[in-house]
Amino acid sequence: MKRLRPALQYLWASPTTAVGLLLATLALVGKGRCRIVSGVLEVHGGLVAPLLRRATLLPGGAAAITFGHVVLGRDQTQLDATRYHERVHVSQCERWGPFFLPVYLGASVWALVRNRHPYRDNFFEREAFDAELRERSKAPR
Length: 141
Ligand SMILES: [Zn+2]
Known about the structure:
Layout: H1 6-24, E1 33-37, E2 40-44, H2 48-54, E3 64-67, E4 70-73, H3 76-96, H4 100-113, H5 123-138
Parallel strand pairs: 2-4
Antiparallel strand pairs: 1-2, 3-4
Bound molecules: zinc ion (ZN).
Zinc ion binds next to helix 3 and helix 5.
């Protein structure tokens, strides 16, 4: 699929980014931090960490989660550690635009009906983990 121009990518992903911005306000409660890294708002702290620990379906919670051009992380270390994986989700959001969240959830349901894991076997997660694995295999040791 041909990629959109950067401004259009932000616009196309903006409905999903809006969800991320809303959740990012949770970082304002407490000692939350945010910064822009390569055009993506990364947020951690405040109520973001307890949200990621408790409000996901993953055992133990999530280290980070992406909504459009917003990445919420438990802390700076987790944001750094998950950056490549989460950037794949940013690209997916740019590709799917306002359809990303429903299609992502649909992919989890599709995995479940096939008796697969709704997270690990979700198409979008597999793409992110595969890309991360390829990237890590290229890194010098
Ligand atoms: Zn992921």
